[in-house]
Amino acid sequence: MKEQQQFESSLPVKLTDEEIIHYADEAADNAELITIKEQELARTKTFYKGELAELEESLRSNLGFVRKKRELRPVMCEWRLDTPEKGKKSCYRLDTNEAFNVLEMTAEDMQGDLDLNEADQEVAETAETVQ
Fold first, then answer.
1. Residue 3: its pLDDT value, please?
2. What are the start-end ranges of the H helices in 8-80?
3. Which of 72, 92, 111 is the last residue of a domain?
4. C-alpha to C-alpha distance for 44 and 26, rounded to whole angstroms
5. b vs e for 53-62, b when ≥16 Cβ sit within 10 Å of the residue's Cβ?
6. Which domain does 64 fall in, by range?
7. How far apart are CA 114 and CA 82, in angstroms?
8. What is the pTM of this model?
9. CA dist., res. 21 & res. 45, Å (int)
10. Residues 33 and 63 in one domain
11. Do residues 91 and 99 make contact, with C-beta atoms less than 8 angstroms apart?
């Protein structure tokens, strides 16, 4: 006669009340952790979404500079009167000494600056010589 062999097999087994409580508690803990992790994920997505938007804007800006090979920067300039001809004024960049804007001179430009201290001095000197 052949000897009987024993082996294991997975078969349904009725759970005890303690096992049901254990699995229920574990399921509740897992549900709570899932909610917490979903909230953390949403906050992280929001954070990185903002960072990505900033990086994308910087990328667009940088690509624009590369494409145009220039950018706007503050540059010291000055108006030069009667340049390039009498009655005109030109605006020059002081970094390259290049004219970039030519306009007709205004009446105010043509009047020029009066040095009132010098005029007062001349009046005083004239008054002294008259006396």
1. 85
2. 17-68
3. 72
4. 26
5. eeeeeeeeee
6. 15-72
7. 18
8. 0.46
9. 36
10. yes
11. yes
